UniProtKB/TrEMBL annotation, chain A:
Protein name (record): Carbon-monoxide dehydrogenase large subunit
EC number assigned by the record: 1.2.7.4
InterPro entries in UniProt: Ald_Oxase/Xan_DH_a/b, Ald_Oxase/Xan_DH_a/b_sf, Ald_Oxase/xanthine_DH-like, AldOxase/xan_DH_MoCoBD1, AldOxase/xan_DH_MoCoBD2, AldOxase/xan_DH_Mopterin-bd_sf
Any matching Pfam family: MoCoBD_1
Aldehyde oxidase/xanthine dehydrogenase a/b hammerhead domain mapped to chain residues: 23-143
Gene Ontology MF terms in the entry: anaerobic carbon-monoxide dehydrogenase activity; iron ion binding
Organism: Roseospira visakhapatnamensis
From TrEMBL, chain B:
Listed EC numbers: 1.2.7.4
Gene3D superfamilies to which the protein is assigned, alphabetical: 3.30.465.10, CO dehydrogenase flavoprotein, C-terminal domain (3.30.390.50), Uridine Diphospho-n-acetylenolpyruvylglucosamine Reductase, domain 2 (3.30.43.10)
Top-level EC class as recorded in UniProt: oxidoreductase
Domain FAD-binding PCMH-type per the UniProt entry, residue ranges: 1-169
The keyword Hydrolase appears for this protein: no
Organism: Roseospira visakhapatnamensis
Top-level taxon of the source organism: Bacteria
Keyword field: FAD, Flavoprotein, Oxidoreductase
Pfam families attached to this UniProt entry: FAD_binding_5
SUPFAM superfamilies for this protein: CO dehydrogenase flavoprotein C-terminal domain-like, FAD-binding/transporter-associated domain-like
GO molecular function terms noted in the UniProt entry: anaerobic carbon-monoxide dehydrogenase activity; FAD binding
Protein name, per record: Carbon-monoxide dehydrogenase medium subunit
InterPro entries: CO_DH_flav_C, CO_DH_flav_C_dom_sf, Diverse_Substr_Oxidored, FAD-bd_PCMH, FAD-bd_PCMH-like_sf, FAD-bd_PCMH_sub1, FAD-bd_PCMH_sub2, Mopterin_DH_FAD-bd
Length: 797, 265
């Protein structure tokens, strides 16, 4: 048994999980059918804001098959708490954020369309829906406010009576005096007002939850579409249902996409768990697509004013930013940290801007809660920064690449402390920029522009040099900034007696391919074939207490935890091998899956050591325990800082306003890459989502808080035909502080691409005098911008 | 959806006889009706499924017309050699409706009966000057569409087939709404034997109609430039999240010009 497993890290191993997904054998929450289960249908408010005068479930109980109608009052009577927020932001002057209660089922007030006031349980989905329609709710509609700028106006309807001015917090970061001084001495100031458009996540699998209660031991099981089952268990047990954690198991089986929207603890999870005990039967709920549009937390929704100060040589000397951030009707799990610590801390970007000051006012509105969505704060920061930098280049008549180059943090300046809290460990921004310019054939753009013009099209080119902070997060830093949880990750690596390996990870895969990537790391490090490695995730009864998957943290934090656990396995294995080989522990080396006594031909494979660990017939039990099963909790020393350059070229049809992305070049520095194919796939998907934000997706509410884009008839998602061929490459400066050198890749595409696309459109439209375009740059928006630019020209004629 | 009775007759007479109240509806391809039912936005007592009526299916040429049975699916029209040989613009139009799933289920009769203001076929009915044949009569295309989702059909009247005159040349240009795929505007331009020009517009107004200003301009000069030079009034055009009346008006000229260009004009 001297097999040497082939090295897999750095190679595009095909995804092992795909066999079950592609053959319909994935097992999702809605696939589970428990004996005796009832189906839940929520009674949801049609009003954005109303008093709830009465909820009468009696007519529903008369519907055949209806088992129960439960209301907010029923929950309140049992002392059920509200959904908590996991991050406390402290605003200016030490004022803590407002945290109004968020009951799982509304009590006397509904605050957004889709707010649930009751749940109907029935023998089947149809009866449940019939029952929900039969519940009579007496609403007294009240004035509503949907848009964040309106919510900030004096006299705006209040979302929560005890939250004055709808202000959740008014927060700032940076040195105001230094920034003001920089502007006072600036040679040029570029100003930009912009909106970061509100998005609806649209995971392919709608949210679902199945609650079960076992009266034999008083235990609960919640199966749910979650990115972080342990976090859900903690929040639901400690804050909402007041259940002991050891009596609650939360399972997140196969999950069909999350993009952040499945991080949060949602009301439906608590309701089905509670109701299962209440009626003594399993309770299942699966959102229909309309419910997903209405109740999955939305993303983005910022209104921002920014100013960039430059000196006479084009160096950035100061940046001032004021942002209004829409929180929606209630604070979702991580809502508060998104427009603060995940946003304003990124405003240095790749640049040496010495003075930055940002103010963020977060406001409640009568809309669906807003929380993290792929990128979470970092797309908003990148969009702002890369738009204003490009605008400055145009105003100064400088090449946008040159202006960026002039301001980049240089490779010899790392570690680099920004003026907005973060300390970048490593990077080489010019390397990514240069590679992206080459790959995009930047130098001969004029030829392509001429070719487009010959077809009657306008061609434009836009750049975006993004940075993101991933691998959230050093718990000490997060805690100091208000996080109410640690943000480490946990792993257990179990060598089985016959040499196979079971890995239990707190990370959760819902499209990322962990079962492949993590297995590659384990196979290489332990010297076993990938086929002998099983990755277990998503079940609190099996995995250690880990924090889950979001913020591009799985590899950098979760993968590092696995490496740390493997280090312990190897250390223990060395002890066992030393004993078996009758050598000193210091003389035993481990490489290529074998423990060798240095300078001899005596060795044992990892498999042989594992077997001995579980058949310890002659172990010295005072110094060597049986077993080969180790766990580790990895708390990162810093964030990781993936960065890169995206170059977009568009063609605009001036007659219709239609934009087509003709060429998209992405060069990313993700540090060490384990599986290039999976990483490329992540960038493909991320750029597609960024393209969706830039060109197609715009969640719209009317002034009364009605959701105007509540279905795929009006909310446009990118389709295959909208996506260009990508040009790709990677540069690599390995992360300096985690054992893999990995930085994370899940969000980059969505972060870096929107400004590249909008910059390209504005470049194309510059000859027509168009200076601004809002996202999404729909055909109507582009056509209208062209008309508006022509109108004053006509008027002047 | 709510519960309803379901009938699947095999003849036109049988189908029509089953419509005994306003709460009983025909079901053809169901690409609008079924989603409406699933969202519980309609509560018919019964549906009369036309899918079993062989007489409603099929495509044939009759002299200077192409006749398409009301139950013929979009994919069949798109793939029909008869259509492609006589009116390639009509096959092209059908190939752009919805997506492959919709085209494999949706029918021409269902689309024309539903009269969605953004559907594609109405542009062809108007632009080619088609005749809508029902179990009771023949209705000139120009008289057929009357308002938003409102047609000349009477209660219980069933479209059996649609007769399209074969133009000398024709083309359809569509500007699709990004989310739904429906036409923000769609324009069918046809030059008929004898030189008359017809322009049928869908998507822009509450119902499909002729763009007479374009017809006059193109009769004088069948060129893209002539179409583009026509200013369409925005009065009365549709307004929604995706397009203003002024934008739709501008698109109609642009699409007409593109259709003329596709005609080789």
């Amino acid at each position: 048994m001297t097999e040497t497993a082939t090295r897999t890290v750095g190679t595009s191993v095909k995804r092992t999980e795909d066999a079950r997904f592609l053959t319909g054998r994935g097992r999702y929450t809605d696939d589970l059918h428990r004996p005796g289960q009832v189906h839940a249908c929520f009674v949801r408010s049609p009003h954005a804001h109303a008093r709830v005068l009465d909820v009468d479930g009696a007519p529903a109980m008369a519907i055949p098959g209806v088992v129960a109608v439960l209301t907010g009052a029923d929950m309140a009577a049992e002392g059920i708490g509200g959904l908590p927020c996991g991050w406390q932001v402290i605003g200016k002057g030490g004022v803590p954020m407002q945290e109004p209660p968020h009951p799982p089922l509304a009590l006397d007030r509904v605050r957004t369309v889709g707010d649930a006031v009751a749940v109907v349980l029935a023998e089947n989905r149809h009866a449940a829906r019939d029952g929900a329609e039969a519940v009579v709710v007496d609403y007294d509609p009240l004035p509503a406010v949907a848009h964040v700028a309106d919510a900030a106006r004096p006299g705006a309807p209040l979302v929560h009576d005890d939250v004055p001015g709808n202000v959740c917090y008014d927060w700032d970061i940076g040195d105001k005096a230094a920034a003001d001084a920089a502007f006072a001495g600036a040679a040029h100031v570029t100003r930009l007002d912009l909106v970061n458009n509100r998005l609806i996540p649209n995971a392919v699998e709608p949210r679902a939850a199945l609650g079960e209660y076992d009266p034999a031991d008083g235990s609960y099981t919640l199966t749910t579409t979650s990115q972080n089952p342990h976090v859900i268990r903690l929040l639901m047990c400690a804050f909402v249902l007041n259940l002991p954690e050891h009596k609650v198991r939360v399972v997140a089986p196969d999950v069909g996409g999350g993009f952040g929207s499945k991080i949060f603890h949602y009301a439906e999870e608590a309701v089905v768990t509670w109701a299962a005990a209440k009626v003594g039967r399993p309770v299942k709920w699966t959102a229909d697509r309309s419910e997903s549009f209405m109740t999955d937390c939305h993303g983005r929704d910022h209104v921002t004013t920014a100013e960039l100060a430059l000196d006479a040589e084009g160096h950035f000397v100061g940046l001032r930013v004021r942002t209004l951030a829409n929180m929606g009707a209630y604070l979702s799990t991580f809502a508060s940290c998104v427009p603060t610590y995940l946003y304003a801390t990124l405003l240095a970007g790749q640049y040496r801007t010495p003075a930055i000051y940002a103010e963020v006012k977060a406001l409640f509105t009568h809309t669906t809660p807003v929380d993290a969505y792929r990128g979470a704060g970092r797309p908003e920061a990148t969009y702002l920064l890369e738009r204003i930098v490009e605008k400055a280049a145009h105003e100064l008549d400088m090449d946008p690449a040159d202006l960026r180059r002039r301001n980049f943090i240089q490779p010899d300046q790392f570690p680099y402390q920004t003026p907005v809290a973060l300390a970048y460990d490593t990077g080489d921004y010019e390397a990514s920029l240069n590679r992206a310019l080459d790959l995009s054939e930047y130098a001969i753009f004029a030829e392509r522009r001429a070719a487009s013009e010959a077809k009657g099209k306008l061609r434009g080119r836009g750049l975006s040099c993004y940075i993101e902070a991933c691998g959230i997060a050093p718990s000490a830093v997060a805690g100091a900034l208000g996080a109410r949880a640690g943000l480490y990750e946990a792993a257990e690596v179990r060598m089985n007696p016959t040499g196979s390996v079971t890995v239990f990870t707190g990370s959760h895969s819902h499209g990322q391919g962990h079962e492949t990537t993590f297995a590659q790391i384990v196979a290489d490090r332990l010297g076993v074939p990938m086929a002998n490695v099983e990755i277990v995730h998503g079940d609190t009864s099996r995995i250690p207490f880990g924090m889950g998957t979001y913020g591009s943290r799985s590899l950098a934090v979760g993968g590092s935890a696995i490496v740390r656990a493997m280090d312990k396995i190897i250390d223990k294995g060395r002890k066992i091998a030393a004993h078996m080989l009758e050598a000193g522990e210091g003389d035993v080396e481990f490489s290529d899956g074998a423990f060798r006594v240095a300078g001899t031909d005596r060795s044992l494979t990892m498999g042989e050591v594992a077997f001995q660990a579980y058949v310890p017939h002659n172990f010295p039990h005072d110094t060597l325990e049986p077993g080969l099963d180790e766990s580790a909790f990895y708390d990162p020393a810093n964030f990781t800082f993936p960065a890169g350059t995206y170059v977009c070229e568009v063609e605009v049809d001036p007659d219709t306003g239609r934009v087509s992305v003709e060429r998209f070049t992405a060069v990313d520095d993700f540090g060490t890459i384990i599986n290039p194919m999976i990483v490329e796939g992540q960038v493909h998907g991320g750029v597609a989502q960024g393209l969706g934000q830039a060109l197609l997706e715009g969640c719209a509410y009317d002034d009364d808080g009605q959701l105007m884009t509540g279905s795929y008839m009006d909310y446009a998602m990118p389709r295959a035909a909208d996506i260009p061929d990508y040009r790709f490459d990677f540069t690599c400066t390995p992360c300096t502080h985690n054992p893999l050198g990995a930085k994370g890749c899940g969000e980059a595409g969505a972060i870096g691409s929107p400004p590249a696309i909008i910059n390209a459109i504005l470049d194309a439209l510059e000859p027509l005098g168009v200076e601004d375009i809002a996202m999404p740059a729909t055909p109507l928006a582009v056509w209208q911008a062209i008309q508006d630019a022509r109108a004053p020209a006509r008027a002047a004629e | 959806m709510y519960a309803f009775e379901y009938h699947r007759p095999s003849s036109i007479d049988e189908a029509v006889a089953l419509i005994t109240s306003d709460d009983i509806q025909f079901l053809s391809g169901g690409q609008t009706l079924i989603p409406t039912l699933k969202q519980r936005l309609a509560m018919p007592d019964a549906l009369v499924d036309l899918g079993g009526i062989e007489a409603l299916r099929g495509i044939r040429r009759e002299g200077d017309h192409v006749i398409i049975g009301a139950g013929t699916r979009h994919a069949e029209v798109a793939a029909s050699d008869t259509v492609a040989g006589a009116i390639p613009a009509l096959a092209h139009l059908a190939s752009q409706i919805g997506d492959a799933q919709v085209r494999n289920r949706g029918t021409i009769g269902g689309s024309v009966a539903n009269a969605d203001p953004s559907a594609d076929y109405p542009a062809a009915v108007i632009g080619l000057g088609a005749t809508v044949r029902t179990n009771r009569r023949e209705i000139a295309g120009d008289d057929y569409f009357q308002d938003l989702f409102t047609t000349a059909l009477e209660p219980g009247e069933l479209i059996t087939e649609i007769a399209f005159p074969i133009p000398e040349v024709a083309a359809y240009a569509k500007f699709a709404q990004a989310a739904s795929g429906y036409a923000i505007a769609g324009v069918m331009v046809a030059r008929m034997p004898g030189g008359a020009v017809r322009v049928g517009v869908t998507g822009a107004a509450p119902y499909a109609l002729r763009a007479t200003a374009l017809e006059v301009a193109l009769a004088a000069d069948f060129s893209p430039a002539a179409a583009k030079a026509v200013t369409i009034s925005a009065d009365g055009l549709n307004s929604d999240l995706h397009a203003t009346p002024a934008y739709r008006a501008a698109l109609v000229s642009v699409l007409a010009a593109r259709a003329v260009a596709a005609c080789g004009g």
